Structure formats: C-alpha cells, structure tokens
Amino acid sequence: MGYLDYQYRQKIDFNTVADxxxxxxxxxxxxxxxxxxxxxxxxxxxxxxxxxxxxxKINREIxxxxxxxxxxxxxxxxxxxxxxxxxxxxxGKSDATETNSTDPWxxxxxxxxxxxxxxxxxxxDSSPLGSGAFAGINSPSYVxxxxxxxxxxxxxxxxxxxxxxxxxxxxxxxxxxxPRTWLWWVKPDLTASxxxxxxxxxxxxxxxxxDGQYMQFFKYAAAGDKGIYIIGPSMVGGSWYHVAFTDxxxxxTDGMKFYINGSLQSVDVQTSGSYTFCEQSNxxxxxxxxxxxxxxxxxxxxxxxxxxxxxxxxxxxxxxxxNENTSVSSYYTVNSEEKVHxxxxxxxxxxxx
Length: 353
Fold this sequence. Notes:
By secondary structure, this protein is mainly β. The chain folds into 2 domains: about 10-100 and about 315-350, Immunoglobulin-like (Sandwich), CATH 2.60.40; about 110-310, Jelly Rolls (Sandwich), CATH 2.60.120. The chain is built from 3 helices and 28 strands. The strands form 5 sheets. Strands 8, 9, 10, 11, 12, 13, 14, 19, 20, 21 and 26 form an 11-stranded antiparallel sheet that branches. Strands 1, 3, 4, 7, 27 and 28 form a 6-stranded antiparallel sheet that branches. Strands 22-18-17-16-15-23 form a 6-stranded antiparallel sheet, with no helix packed on it. A hairpin with a 7-residue loop joins β9 and β10 (about 135). The longest helix has 11 residues, at about 315-325. The two termini are about 20 Å apart. About 45% of the residues are buried.
C-alpha cells in the first residue's frame, strides 16, 4: 500500500466497456461524499492525488475546488479496460503541494477549455499545445454549464470567444488534410439558433455547426467556391447535447463524421467544385462566431470545448460522453473511505487484538 503519509483513500470504479490508451477521465468531486470532504486538509485541493491500483501517481487537473460547498471537478489521463477501470483518490495531508498539470490533455489535445477557468472574460486553455487562452469578445456572460460554468452566446450581443491563429488549429499542412477532432457540450437556446466553431472567413478554411437546424461540417479548398461538407440531424433548443466532429483526412467526405451524445449519426454528403485539401488562413479561431459578411453569431450555452490533432475513435467519444454526462451517475462508483496513514493503520490493527 503506497502513499502511507496520506490519511485516506477511496477507490473509484469506472464502468468502461472498451480498451483505450491515454484517455481522459472525469470525476465530479461532489460525488465523493462527506468522508472525502471532511478528510481534506488543503482548502485548494492540493492534497488530492490520483493513482492507479498499483499506486502509480497520475498527474491531474482540478477546477473550481470548493471545500465549503463541497464541489469541484477533476480530470486525469489513464488507460481504460473493456472490463472496467479503477483508480485511487488519496487525500488528507496537511503539507501536500500537488498542483494542476496539463498531462490530462497531453494526448494530442490542441485545446481544452473548461469555461470556468478564466481571467476576467478570457477562458484559459488547459492543453499544452494550444494558444493558452480564448478571449471573450463583447463581454459574454458565464452561466451554469454542463460541468461547472459555460459561456452564454447571445446573438443580439454579438458575443463569442476567440483564440489567435495557431498552427495546430489548421485542417491541413498546405499540401494534404490532417486528422482532427472537435467536441463540446452545447445547449441551443432556440430551435433555429446556431452554435458554431469557425476558422477562417468568407468560405476560407472550415466551420462546424451544431444546433436546432442541423449539424454541418464544411471544409473549403479555395475562397468558398470549392469544398466538401456533410449535413446531419438537428437538435432541440433548450436541451444539453454532447457533439463531436471527426475527420480522418484520408477519405474525403467518407472520413468526416458527426456524433451526438456518443452515437455516430447518418449524414448527407455534399461537394462543391474540385476539392484537394483544406485551405489555410491566418484568421482567428472563433467558437460562437462565423465571420463572413454578414457575420453569423451563435445563440446558446457552450461548454467543455476540445480540439485534437488526431481523429478520436467512436469508443473514446462514447467514453467521454458517458463519463461527462452528469445527469447519469452510474458511469463510475465511489467506494467507501479507507484509512491508509501508517500510524493509524498500526493503531487499528493493535486495537483488533
């Protein structure tokens, strides 16, 4: 038994159903129970450690840790097993100095934006590859999101967030397309509202749309006159959805896919002109805004935005949706607290005789 200088630990059993390597796990710390919160020694959560069952430490990220309200959000990276996956959460050490790490997002994440980690109206990016921040434009409001807070895009206020142009945000290297994944949680305000992610303008580069009208994924080859795109089903305004767009970059429109709530969707494939590869532009990356003339703004709550420089598999997308679907608590089980501090263990064993 490792980490004997910590007071307690709890085992977390995830109901994973596929073998995955270096995938992200999420724990809503409000699920940990009163024993966990009464055992915390550091008000900022710096005494919280994640390990494998072999007590190998895993670097983690904690957001919105509040030991008074007994709330917080924890992410870490690990391997999943088709027969279920378990980890330990250790806590209760007054001199612990654990800090947040970008390691949960090290497996090709170009962006991981929680919306609740901000400097003013600027959302901070937790990934090691991205630009580091998404600026809030026209003072967007931050409201209750799917996990913690989300950003509320309002068409009438022209609100959105943006990150400056960065190599990792492009869909191609200027010669051929590259594999990519975009995923986020969204709650469209109205049936016909738009919640989009765009890179480029006036038909340049790409944009993604997921709302009450339909889902669209456009990739442009040249200033809007050549491109490929797929159109998928619509969503209902006022409800939360997990959406994902993936592209394997090798099969044209056959490699472009939509997922809603972890399920692959049927799509309508469209083409325009002769497509070779996605055009590059130096325009900002803009969730919530597509900047042709006239500009198109989004309307709805947007949360947990991620962009990867690889195609994410259906099994991993299903895992992430199931794990982060906070309306369902059965994806993981929090087991009873165990005392692990060596003096306490010795006293406990001595008392048994």
